Amino acid sequence: MDYEIKKEGRFQYVECGAGPVIVVLHGLFGALSNFKDVLDYFSGKYRVVIPIMPIYDLPVPETNVQALADFIRDFIDYKGYEKVTLLGNSLGGHVSLVYVQHYPAKVHSVILTGSSGLYENAFGGTFPRRGDYNFIKEKVELTFYDPATATSELVDEVFAIIKDKEKVIRTLALAKSAIRHNMAAELKNFNVPFCLIWGRNDIVTPPDVAEEFHKLLPQSDLFWIDKCGHAAMMERPQEFNEILSRWLDKLFA
Asked: Tens digits of per-residue pLDDT, 150-159?
């Protein structure tokens, strides 16, 4: 489907469908295209909204997970949404967790897939080898169980980010912020339903991270997808959508 990116003030977002609101939060190198299948599948029954987070626009000292959660607060308040469902992948999951911590009254439920917030195996200090396309390609391929999922278009998008010095600085700032901002102590206080959908072959946020989330969250259901890495909604979209659809049907029954 073609997406109309709406621009209103400092917000840019895609909004499709009608019904209960699902706010989708992308990861550090995420793009709207990562959630094409989610939009296609769920916009017939839900209002699916993807705000573009200002990952590369914040002042460097303010480039952190909390600032992104505050941005999402401002966006949700601007749109007048109440009791949203948050769906976050990777950094987007972490932002979801911080939002729930500070604004629980606005949250109906949360879906995490490959979320940071406890532990993640980041690209590491050698990641921004800005001129080495093959190095970036190998790193992007590690996101998935099947390296073929890392299309040339996806690698090109990441490579373009890494070539930009200012974007690299903010990427590193966010990665360090995510590592410092461990949520383990807060999770016991989260009293909304959580759906955890995890690739069993995720090496960025490995399966024991999902198990730890499941153990610490008071209300959580954990689902596994075999032969799947860090971005289940991209690599196994049909299975991801079917799992999530069943979970949401029970929640909104």
From this structure: 898 888 888 8
Query: Is residue 131 pLDDT above 80, yes or no?
Result: no
Rounded to a whole number of angstroms, the distance between the first and last alpha carbons of the chain is: 28
Query: pTM for this structure?
Result: 0.92
C-alpha angle with apex 46: 12 to 1, nearest 5 degrees?
60
Torsion angles phi and psi, residue 12, rounded to 5: -125, 135
| Residue 242 CA from chain centroid, whole number | 18
Query: Residue 69 and residue 84: Cα distance in Å, rounded?
Result: 14
Report the pLDDT averaged over residues 27-44: 87
The tokens 């499941």 sit on which residue? 214
Query: For the chain, which domains are there?
Result: 6-121+182-251 (3.40.50.1820)
User: Is-contact 168 128, C-beta < 8 A?
Assistant: yes
Largest CA distance in the chain: 52
**Residue 123 predicted with pLDDT over 60:** no
| The two three-digit tokens of residue 239, written as one number | 């299975």
